[in-house]
Design goal:
- The chain is 41% helix and 17% strand.
- It has 15 helices and twelve strands.
- The radius of gyration is 22 Å and the shape is globular.
- It folds into two domains: 187 residues, Rossmann fold, CATH 3.40.50; 184 residues, Glycogen Phosphorylase B (Rossmann fold).
- By secondary structure, it is of the alpha/beta class.
- The mean pLDDT is 91.
- It has a six-stranded parallel β-sheet, sandwiched between helices. Strands 9-8-7-10-11-12 form a six-stranded parallel β-sheet, with helices on both faces.
C-alpha cells in the first residue's frame, strides 16, 4: 500500500470553512495532513472578532477532529515541520512576519513551499511611489515559493501580475461545506411558512437577506437604504439583516420609522445560518472591500440567487449576471435598488436556484481536494 504523502498547512487561526475540509482530508487518509496555527493560544476557547466585537460561535464544528498543532516562533515551527518531512508546505499569506521568515528558512532547507493568497489587484494599492516599491518587493518575494495556491481567479491574477515569473498554480479555494448547507436549508424549507410567521414575515413577502459584519467595510447601510428605496415599488419587500457590529446604532436609527421592514435578529450561530437562507428569496453582499466573501457561496449552496458589489472578490468566480444573480457598483444605492426590484419579479426561479447550486458545487471541498492531489502528484 502506498504511503500517504505528507502535506503541511500553516495559517493564522482556524476558520469555519477550512476546519471541515481539514477534517475530511484527515478522515479519508489519502493525504497525511498536519495543520499549524501561528496566532492562537491552545488554551483559548473563543476568539474575539474585532469588527463585530463578539466571539463567533462555530457550533457546526462540534466533534470535529484532525491533526492540528499550535506553534510559537518561526524557527521553532521550522524545526517541527522539518521533522515531519513533508512533500509540500502551504503557507497562508506572508503576514504575520513569522510566515515570511518561515517561508525563507523552509526554502533554504530544500523543502517545497507554496503560498495561499486571497490578495487581489483591486484591493491592493499599486500606484505612486509606495506602489512601485511594493511591485519591486513582490517581484522578488514571490520567487521564494515553488507553487501558488490562490483562493480564486482574482488572487491568481494578482500573483501572475506581480511575480514576473510563472509558478505552478493549484487553487486552494475558500470553500464551504456545500452539502451540509444544502441539506440543512432543505430541512428548514419544510417549515418555511411557520418560521417566517415567527419573524413577522408573510408568505407573499419578498425577503432579501444580508449576513455580514455591521461595519463600514461590509457596508450594511447601503443594503438598508436600497431596500427602503425599492419598497416604493415593491411594498412587500422585507430585509433580514443577520450580524452584529459598531453600525448597529446607525442602522436602528435609520429604520426607526420603517416598522417591520427590516428584521435584525443579531448575530446567528453557524448552525442557524441555513435557516435564514431557507427563509429568504435573495442574498445580497454589499461590501466595500471584500477580497472573497464565503457567505456568497453559503447562500448559493442553499439555492439562493445572489447580488454582490463589484468589490466582492467572489463575484468573479461565482456570480453570473442574469444566470444566478447580479453585480452592482459598490455603494450605489439606486443601482442596487433597481436590481432588487428586478429580482423581485424573478423570485422562485427554479433556473436561478439550480444555477446557484451548480456553481457552488464547482467550488466545493471535492474540487479543492482534486487540486491538492494534483499538487502532491507534481512533487513526484
Amino acid at each position: 500500500m502506498t504511503a500517504a504523502k505528507r502535506l503541511v498547512v500553516v495559517q493564522n487561526r482556524p476558520t469555519q470553512f477550512d476546519v471541515p475540509l481539514y477534517a475530511r482530508i484527515h478522515k479519508e487518509g489519502e493525504i497525511s495532513l498536519t495543520v499549524f496555527y501561528t496566532d492562537v493560544d491552545p488554551s483559548e476557547t473563543v476568539t474575539l472578532d474585532r469588527e463585530m466585537g463578539i466571539a463567533p460561535r462555530w457550533d457546526h464544528l462540534t466533534g470535529v477532529r484532525y491533526c492540528a498543532r499550535y506553534s510559537g516562533s518561526a524557527i521553532r515551527l521550522w524545526g517541527q515541520i522539518v521533522a515531519i518531512h513533508p512533500a509540500h508546505v502551504i503557507i497562508c499569506g506572508w503576514y504575520p512576519r513569522s510566515h515570511a521568515l518561515l517561508a525563507l528558512v523552509l526554502r533554504l532547507s530544500g523543502i517545497r513551499i507554496g503560498v495561499r493568497s486571497d490578495n487581489t489587484l483591486a484591493h491592493t494599492a499599486l500606484s505612486g511611489l509606495r506602489g512601485r516599491v511594493k511591485r519591486t518587493v513582490m517581484l522578488r518575494w514571490l520567487r521564494v515559493y515553488h507553487a501558488w495556491h490562490p483562493v480564486g481567479s482574482l488572487a491568481q491574477a494578482y500573483l501572475a501580475t506581480l511575480s514576473g515569473q510563472p509558478r505552478p498554480v493549484f487553487l486552494f479555494r475558500y470553500s464551504v461545506p456545500t452539502d451540509w448547507f444544502a441539506e440543512q436549508a432543505a430541512r428548514f424549507s419544510l417549515e418555511r411558512s411557520d418560521l417566517r410567521k415567527e419573524l413577522g414575515i408573510r408568505r407573499e413577502d419578498f425577503v432579501v437577506l444580508g449576513v455580514m459584519k455591521w461595519s463600514q467595510r461590509e457596508d450594511p447601510l447601503t443594503l438598508v437604504e436600497a431596500v427602503l428605496h425599492a419598497a416604493q415599488s415593491i411594498p412587500e419587500i422585507k430585509l433580514i439583516l443577520v450580524g452584529e457590529g459598531p453600525l448597529r446604532g446607525a442602522i436602528e436609527g435609520r429604520i426607526k420609522s420603517e416598522a417591520g421592514r427590516v428584521i435584525m435578529p443579531g448575530y446567528a450561530k453557524y448552525s442557524e445560518l441555513p435557516m435564514y437562507y431557507a427563509l429568504s428569496d435573495l442574498f445580497v453582499h454589499p461590501a466595500v472591500s471584500e477580497p472573497y466573501g464565503v457567505s456568497v457561496q453559503e447562500a448559493m449552496s442553499c439555492g439562493l440567487p445572489v447580488i454582490v458589489s463589484d468589490k466582492v472578490g467572489a463575484a468573479a468566480d461565482l456570480v453570473e449576471p442574469g444566470v444566478n444573480g447580479d453585480v452592482f457598483p459598490v455603494g450605489d444605492v439606486a443601482r442596487l435598488a433597481d436590481r432588487l426590484i428586478r429580482h423581485a419579479g424573478l423570485r422562485g426561479s427554479a433556473e436561478m436556484a439550480a444555477a446557484s447550486r451548480r456553481k457552488a458545487a464547482d467550488w466545493s471541498y471535492s474540487r479543492t481536494l482534486e487540486e491538492l492531489r494534483r499538487c502532491l502528484a507534481a512533487v513526484g
